[in-house]
Structures are given as structure tokens and as C-alpha cells.
Amino acid sequence: MNRKFLYAVPITVLLIILIVVSSIINQYNNADKNIPGIPPHTTYNEAIKEKLPTLVTEEAYNNNCSGYIIPLQNIEKSAPNGLLEDINLAISNYPEWTLLVTSEEKKDMMSRWESTIETWGPMLSGKEIEEYLETQSAVARKTNYSIEVEYSEGDYSEVATRRILVRVNDELRHTRLFEVSVSYTDNETISAWKEERIQKKERINNLKNRAETARITFFSTSAAVGLYYFILLLIAVKNKMINNKIKKSYLQQINKREDLVNEGHYRAALELADRYLHHFTNDTEIKAFRDRLLIFTGGDPKKAEEAYLEALKLKSYLENEQTDNFIKVQPDELERSADLIPYNPHLKDVHNKLEKIEQNRIKKEEDEIRNNIEFVYSLIRDCNIAKAREILEEIKEKDSNNPNIIQLEKMLTRRDGNFSLISSNQSVYLVEKNTVIFGREDEEDSPDIPFETSRVSREHLKLYHLGNRLEVEDLNSANGTFVNGRKLEGKKVLQNGDTLNLAKVIDLYVSVGEEENRDYYILQSNRMAVCIYSNTASLTIANTIYKVFYIDGVTLIQNEDIQVIMPNVTIILRGETYQVEEL
Questions:
Q1: What's the CA gap between 537 and 525, in Å, rounded?
Q2: Element (H, E) at 82
């Protein structure tokens, strides 16, 4: 214990120092050493005394402004001092305006004129300004224009924190003529940027000094530890020479270790090495053997013996793979052998080969299922619904949880052929039953074919599909039903080319077609189409002719390709998306 302590303590101390030093140096190396610059920004003077006069002058020229303008009289309390006078100066920059000011306002403007003359550049002389302003005060209070100013604080860009919005109104027309806005960065934000630069420099210098100190400490400690271990090495060499004389008597026993390992007796080999090292603790060869044995067995010799036996069993499976005696590996066997791989490296190769065989078998089954699914889809496209259901039942037995199989099962579920296809531009109703009610839809009543207009009654009319004829009957509606302009009394057979009108607001044009010796009927307007059919019909959707089939409880619609109509899905017809619901 004392010898281990002598070896362990110095290296532990050195490792701790190394970790600390590395951490300090990494802090410096990983630190962002870029000193942030002051972002490009606009100051108050640049925004108000340079940009704003230019923007106002450009807009005033563009709008052919001339005449008298009332200066800004008040502004938000939160606005900077002097903003009102600066805005009035900016307005007066436009030469075609006469600024109406009082004597007191004139003095304030003169004062700010002197303080900003360097920014604005040479303009009028002081005497000319005074005469100009006195002339303005003498002008009759006939006003052509007025100004409004909105001052706000916020984040208007990555750097701008203040915004000035100037609106010029035409007082004669009582309209807003134009508006301009400027943004700038406040002084507090600019000061914060400068302070951030100073703090960043100080942090980087502190990290650099700490890193230099840490390096010196580590090199000094390393030299001391190296000297310490050199002394221990001299002592160890002397002790080894003594122990070699005793070691020879134990060699006969320890030489059995390799035979034990080759036969899978890992615990016995480990116990033999431990007994030997009890007397010869510094034998590096046996220590290395013991370490290799623990690494080979994953630190658990008992588990390693189980893995050794598992490898022998799996090897026997592989040997019989190409024979009639091949036994299919069960999933739990592969799972168990996978858990034992860390304890026997030879097991991994055998396990992977058998796993690949199993994966190929599973892939073959999946390919077969996928091909069958494609075959079912092809049967649907060929309208062979009965055969498609038959094949589907067979593949369900192999993989009932497959999402494609579940989807096919929904598609082939037997349903009535009555659906609504609703898009933003058109409503299409497929009706495969003998009676159809048209009416207004509300919370209590939901007719087969709904309308939103209040002129249509809740139950307005009923259609009777009687084989090769279609009859219409008014259901005592409030505003009547009309065929070709004549009010309907009793029942009437609809003919190709008739116009069916509901309440004098909805016109539906009747067309009659024939498919497979059966008549079908289309009642159509610009935004809706009602198809009443038995098994097959053709109708126009999105300016394209589609064929509708109702076969063995499945409704199909075909143009270039066939789609299955089923509830609670969306379908796309000629780029138009339709929501499908059952009637």
C-alpha cells in the first residue's frame, strides 16, 4: 500500500495541475480575442441636421410645394431637448416655404442656427435671416401647410434606437402630403459600445496573464515529478534483481495460463495469475497477461465464459447454413449474443454473419410484401377491386402493422358512393343513391346538397333517380323551384339541356350522359357540380373531364391516373386541392 502511495501521489498531483493548467490555457485560447468595433451608426446630428433637411427638401420638390407652413409648436415630452427647433430648421431648409414664426421662435431659431452652422454649411447671413424671419412674421396667417412629428424609441434596426417621423399636411385640401422618417442611435447606446470595448480588453489581458503563470507552474512541477520517479526507478531495478531468483520456482505453474485461456477457462486463468502476482507484484509480463485477460473478457470472466460457449453454438449454426440441418436463429438468441459480444471478441464475427443472414431473410420478406403492395395498387388502377382485396388479405397476415397495408385497407373499405369534393373554387358532389335532397344548411339540418343562401329553404327540393330518368319535386319551398323558367308544381322529369332554378338565385344546368348502358345526370353551375350516377359517369372538374367509377363499394376517379375517393382526405385534381367528405 505504501509503495502504491509513493507512485500514485506525485502523478496524481501532476495530473491535477495539468488539468487546471489546461483549463486555464484553454480559457485563453478559446476566448474571443476580437475587440468589438463601434458598429456603423447614425448620430443625432447626422440624422436631424443632415439627413432630415435633405429628405424634406426632396419630397417638397417632388410635390411642388410653395407657400406658408406652420412650424412645429410642440412635441412629445420624451423627445430630446432642442428637437423641436431642429425640426423647424430642417423644414425651413426648403426655399419655397415661408415659415410662420413668432418673435420668440425667431430668437430660438437664430440661436440654434449659430450652433449648427458648421453642420449645415454656409447659408444666409444673419441679417438676411433676421429680415427673412421678420418678413414671415408679417405675413398674414394664410397657411398652406402644417407639420406633425412623431418621436419614438425602440429597436428599428441592429443599431438604430430612436426614430423621428415627420408628416407634412396640405391644410387647403386637408390631406397628408408626404412623410419622411430618420433613425439614429442614442448617446447612451454609443457609450455602452465604448465601455464594452474597454471591458473586453481587460478580460483578455487577465486571461493571458493567468495562462502564462499556469505554464510556468506546470513545467516546474513536471521537472520535480520526473526527478522523483527517476529515484524510484533506481530502487525498483535493485528489487527486481532479487525477485528474479525466486521467480523461477513459480514458472511451471504460471505456464499453464495460455492453455486455460484457449479452452475458455478464463476465471481459472485469472485466479492463477492473481496467486502468482501475490508473490511477484512487479512481474510486468504476468501483469500484462492479467490486464489483457480482463480486456479480452470485458472485465467479467464469468460472462466471458458464457460468451465463449455462445460463440461455439453460433459457429455450429454457421457450419450448417448451406445444409438441410440449418437451424433458423431466433431473435432472442441474437439479442443474447449481442449482449455478450463485449466479453468475447470472437463472438462478434460469428454474431454479425448470422445477423446478416437474418437481415437478408427479413429484407426478402419485406421486398415480397412491397411487391405485393405494388401489385394491389396496380389492381386498383385496373379497377379489379375484388382481386385487390384478396391479395391484401394475404399480405395482412405477414405484416398487419405496415402503414401502406393499413392505407390500402382504408382505400378498399366498402362504402356508399356518396361524397363531396370541396375546394376553394368549386364544390363537386358524387351521388350514388336514388333520392337526393337540396336545401339550406344550418346547425339543425344538413341536406345532401347544401346551399348557404337564406332564400333556399332547409328542404327545398328532392331528386328521384329512377333508372334511366331523373325526376324533380319541390318540397313546398318558400321561394319555389323553377324548370326552364316555369315554377314547378308536383314532379317533373328533367331532360338534357334543362335549367333547374332554386328560389330564382341558383341556376343548375342539366346534362344527361350514358356509360355502360346506364344514364347519369350532371347538374352544374360555375362553382358547383352534382353528379347523380349508378356505377359510372363522366363529369368536368377544374376544366378537365374525369371518369367516376363505383365498383364493389369503392369509388374511383380517373383522368390520366386513377385515385380512390375516401372520406377525410385531400386529393389534387389538375393542381386544385379538394377536401373529401362522405355525404
A1: 18
A2: none
How far apart (Å, rounded) are the C-alpha atoms in residues 243 and 245? Answer: 5
State the burial class of residue 297 (Cβ atoms within 10 Å of its Cβ: 0-12, 13-18, 19+).
Answer: buried
What would the grid cell of residue 258 be? 495460455
Q: What span, in angstroms and rounded, lies between the C-alpha atoms of 180 and 342?
A: 74
Residues near 402 by Cβ (< 8 Å), separated by ≥ 6?
A: 369, 373, 395
Residue 556 CB: number of other CB atoms within 10 A? 20
Query: How many beta carbons lie within 10 A of that of residue 377, not counting itself?
Result: 16
pLDDT tens for the chain, 583 residues: list them: 566 777 778 788 878 888 888 888 887 787 777 777 788 888 888 888 889 999 999 999 999 998 888 888 888 888 888 888 888 888 888 888 887 765 565 565 556 555 554 444 444 455 555 555 555 544 434 568 999 999 888 887 777 788 999 999 998 888 999 999 999 888 888 888 888 888 888 888 888 888 888 888 888 888 888 888 888 888 888 877 777 776 666 666 677 777 787 778 888 888 888 888 887 788 888 888 888 888 888 888 888 888 888 877 777 777 766 655 556 666 677 777 777 777 777 778 888 887 787 788 788 888 888 898 899 888 888 888 899 888 888 888 888 888 888 888 888 888 888 999 999 889 999 999 899 999 998 877 789 999 989 999 999 999 999 978 999 999 999 999 999 999 999 999 999 999 999 999 999 999 999 887 788 999 999 889 999 998 899 988 878 899 999 988 899 998 888 889 999 999 988 888 999 998 8
Are 76 and 148 spatial neighbours (Cβ–Cβ below 8 Å)? no
Domain positions in the chain: 2-35+191-246, 44-184, 257-357, 416-582
Quick one: which H or E segment has residue 505? none
Residue 447: what residue type?
P
Full-model pTM? 0.45
Query: What is the Cα–Cα distance from 557 to 429, expressed in whole angstroms?
Result: 13
Q: If you ran DSSP here, which 8-state letter would residue 479 be given?
A: S
Identify whether the C-beta of residue 375 lies closer than 8 Å to the C-beta of residue 391: yes
Instruction: For residue 188, give every residue at least 6 positions away whose Cβ sits within 8 Å of its Cβ, in sequence order, or none.
Output: none
Strand extents, DSSP E, 489-543: 491-493, 499-502, 506-515, 518-524, 528-532, 536-541
Q: Choose among 97, 69, 94, 72: nearest CA to 82.
A: 72
Nearest to 510 by CA among 546, 558, 472: 472
Closest CA to 161 of 80, 81, 85: 80
Kindly report the length of the chain.
583
CA 9 from chain centre, in angstroms, equals 53
CATH 2.60.200.20 is right for the domain spanning 416-582: yes
* CA nearest to 159, candidates 183, 181, 191: 183
| Residue 121 φ/ψ region, left for φ over 0, alpha for ψ in the -120 to 50 degree band, beta for the rest | left
C-alpha dihedral sign at 480, 486, 490, 492: negative
